[in-house]
Amino acid sequence: xxxxxxxxxxxxxxxxxxxxxxxxxxxxxxxxxxxxxxxxxxxxxxxxxxxxxxxxxxxxxxxxxxxxxxxxxxxxxxxxxxxxxxxxxxxxxxxxxxxxxxxxxxxxxxxxxxxxxxxxxxxxxxxxxxxxxxxxxxxxxxxxxxxxxxxxxxxxxxxxxxxxxxxxxxxxxxxxxxxxxxxxxxxxxxxxxxxxxxxxxxxxxxxxxxxxxxxxxxxxxxxxxxxxxxxxxxxxxxxxxxxxxxxxxxxxxxxxxxxxxxxxxxxxxxxxxxxxxxxxxxxxxxxx
Length: 288
Ligand SMILES: [Zn+2]
Prior knowledge:
Blueprint: H1 7-15, E1 26-29, E2 34-36, E3 50-53, H2 56-61, E4 65-66, H3 90-95, H4 97-101, E5 114-121, E6 124-131, E7 134-140, H5 146-157, E8 161-163, H6 167-181, H7 197-206, E9 215-216, H8 217-223, H9 230-238, E10 251-252, H10 265-278
Helix pairs in contact: 8-9
This protein binds zinc ion.
């Protein structure tokens, strides 16, 4: 199942040639019969002439031909922007892997390394890093600042990162499948987020917000005994290394607006809608 973001958000991402939208949707232009990537350098058509598709195949089935400028058939998967914009295929990305992640010493045992896995989700590809102790990172591959987080983990732990298998990666992949299917919205994986004591305090507190509910930054600040710390809480949320499993997406402004999200506000909206639709029934929902 592939879910498209709301039309208004796709339209603004398309008009802004937002590279984080790459691979998330494709754009058919009714007046020309051509379909493009969101970042196509060609002149943008009028919004009323635009149609959105989740995959190039859907656009082809809709009667559109691929654009010769942005070549939307070349990137069926989300184009990872993590390492190098010119790597248009996952295999190209994997070749470039060592540049960012570091090559393990030839004699390294896998126990000396952090293990990486790419996990496909309806909201795009995620990257997970784990070792025997637990999960160190989970985030969307196109997220701004992801490379910086990978470097921080690699440099702090002094360990190379290599693709591999690990029980915590299996649990993460299974947990995400259950999460996106709506059958289980919480995770039971040991988490090892890299951060200051304050950041870890904020992240721990996020677990007090059950799926299907939200909390404002100011209420978080009150509950943590730091009533003026709303902004610091926002900053800690932005530095969350474990998207979805540490539910920073459940924090919103007191006026109900979503505010920012590293993976894109449309993803935050999607996650909150999804959790509201699938959260376990609670008596207090009908008996406040
Ligand atoms: Zn194009």
